[in-house]
Amino acid sequence: xxxxxxxxxxxxxxxxxxxxxxxxxxxxxxxxxxxxxxxxxxxxxxxxxxxxxxxxxxxxxxxxxxxxxxxxxxxxxxxxxxxxxxxxxxxxxxxxxxxxxxxxxxxxxxxxxxxxxxxxxxxxxxxxxxxxxxxxxxxxxxxxxxxxxxxxxxxxxxxxxxxxxxxxxxxxxxxxxxxxxxxxxxxxxxxxxxxxxx
Amino acid sequence: xxxxxxxxxxxxxxxxxxxxxxxxxxxxxxxxxxxxxxxxxxxxxxxxxxxxxxxxxxxxxxxxxxxxxxxxxxxxxxxxxxxxxxxxxxxxxxxxxxxxxxxxxxxxxxxxxxxxxxxxxxxxxxxxxxxxxxxxxxxxxxxxxxxxxxxxxxxxxxxxxxxxxxxxxxxxxxxxxxxxxxxxxxxxxxxxxxxxxx
Lengths: 198, 198
Fold this sequence. Notes:
The structure is a homodimer of 198-residue chains. The first copy, chain A, is built from 7 helices and 6 strands; from the N terminus they run H-H-H-E-E-E-H-E-H-E-H-E-H. Chain A is α/β, with parallel strands linked by helices and 198 residues long. Chain A has 2 domains: 5-52, RecR Domain 1 (Helicase, Ruva Protein, domain 3); 62-196, Dna Topoisomerase Vi A Subunit, Chain: A, domain 2 (3-Layer(aba) Sandwich), CATH 3.40.1360. A 4-stranded parallel β-sheet of chain A has the order 4-3-5-6. In chain A, strand 3, helix 4 (87-96) and strand 4 (102-105) form a beta-alpha-beta unit. Chain A starts with a helix and ends in a 6-residue tail after the last helix. At the A-B interface, helix 1, helix 2, helix 3, strand 2 and helix 4 of A face helix 1, helix 2, helix 3, strand 2 and helix 4 of B.
């Protein structure tokens, strides 16, 4: 059965993140057993998305329009610019429903190891955007990793001297987190940043 | 973002077995970021499969041809008929590369609880197939569950009186299994069915 269309389909699915050969097989079997209800709409939506997907020329987000719905939404605050590494991070912040400003997607982090310098990232465009008169705050929402923080520092340095206010995400205990299972760094940061009660 | 094509795509993927909203999101993001290498071939193969998929009128397998490649393969032994509940079971046995006969897919098990009687399963066709002069053995490869075994018994009863030999899969310790973690039933069955060494 190695060269059949079904096997091809399974091996395509098996390449996707979070899927292996076994789960891809289950998935394909489920799809072909529910052709009308699942396979047909999936093909239609995939085709549509594949044809329509655009990289937003303003922020670097992927969506079916350029500028993306966030950049073209007049109700969103243009004075706040939230800098994220990847589109997945943008989506994650959107899901939190706590940010009503605009985004800027870097497309990764600086990395000496992987040979990624500022030119490989969407940084120059960010500096230009941050200089616009309406922008008052740049929120560095890169990951709390060494590379994420290095990238945030580099961008802060580039923005130094401009009027824009630069902030970063707070460190602390995750909601529902238990102290006993928390790493020392986070616990220390949460203690240092303690807030008055009530 | 709730009605965007991307969200639609994510919610379609999230319905598939083994995927939830989070993994569907990761998967869709991965697909749209690798449009040429992944999304386009996936759409093509899905479209092709959706158009070509057929239920084999002989055994009940799903494939792009009817009869399926197994039923039409002249090198496979027509004297052995392996009865499975689902297509997934057929695929699993194929992967073991130990069976060179033909299959018969029941499409489930008898179940008083779910109101599935013999008429809802592909049983009559099996009885007819098993009566063909070339068939000498029917291997009951239903699951080792109460319903799987009930179904196997029912079919054995229906086949009683014919010349065909009826067998079932062996019970025993799974390869790599540890006795300490094995259930009593399996361990008892393995002990009872012990074999001489060497």
